[in-house]
Amino acid sequence: MMSGNQIFPDAPVVCSENGQFATVDHMEGSNVIKLKKDKHGQHHYIPLSWVTRVDGEVHIDRPGNQAMREWTSSPSIDPASDARGGTHKSKRQITEDRTSNEGRKNASSTDLKDRKTSKEQEPSLRNSGSPGHSGNKNPGNSIETL
Q1: Distance (Å, whole) CA 73 – CA 35
Q2: C or N terminus of the chain, fewer CB within 10 Å?
Q3: Ranges of H-type helices in the chain
Q4: Over the stretch 5-40, which tens digit does the pLDDT of each residue have?
Q5: Residue 146 has what pLDDT?
Q6: CA–CA gap between residue 61 and residue 27 (Å, rounded)
Q7: Who's near 132: CB < 8 A, 6+ residues apart?
Q8: Cα 20 to Cα 59: distance, rounded to the nearest angstrom
Q9: Is 55 helix (H, G, I), strand (E, B) or coil?
């Protein structure tokens, strides 16, 4: 296994297709590499176990597109999934994320339905005046406009 003491800040991270897809920010602990912020201002993390060699550049064992799908946005990497080379969230974490997102979606649509229902239940603010009347309940204060 590769040692993290060979990895230095600002080193290019190169995929298995020899293309640079990231730059090292620093080592986060002994087995996680924190990458510099992407164009969206987000740091990403990859496990040291992806590294195949370091020669001024940090070479990893997968194509850049795959690495970017599998990197994480937090430094906690699940060692069990790391050994399989997959994503770094447990099935439980993925399920919790999905449930959380669905809950937010459902809450938003429920809030929208509640707002529509309460608007429908609001009493009409229009006055139904008699014919020839402006609709104002207090005829002494009515102003007729042209």
Answers
A1: 10
A2: C
A3: 64-70, 79-84, 91-121
A4: 899 999 999 999 999 999 999 999 999 999 999 999
A5: 53
A6: 18
A7: none
A8: 9
A9: coil
Total Cβ atoms within 10 A of residue 61: 14
Question: Quick one: which of 13, 10, 6 has its CA closest to 26?
Answer: 10
Find the length of the chain: 146
Average pLDDT over residues 103-121: 50
Judged by DSSP in three states, 52 sits in strand
Q: Check: CB of residue 27 under 8 Å from CB of residue 36.
A: no
Question: pTM of the entire structure?
Answer: 0.54
- Chain centroid to Cα 130, Å, comes to 58
Beta-carbon count within 10 A of 113 CB: 10
Question: By 3-state DSSP, what share of the chain in percent is helix, strand and coil, each rounded to 5?
Answer: 35, 20, 45
- CA gap 92, 80 in Å, rounded: 13
Alpha-carbon span 139 to 78, nearest angstrom? 76
Tokens of 79: 């060692």
Which helix (H) or strand (E) segment holds residue 33: the answer is strand 32-35
Cβ pair 72, 88 in contact under 8 A: yes
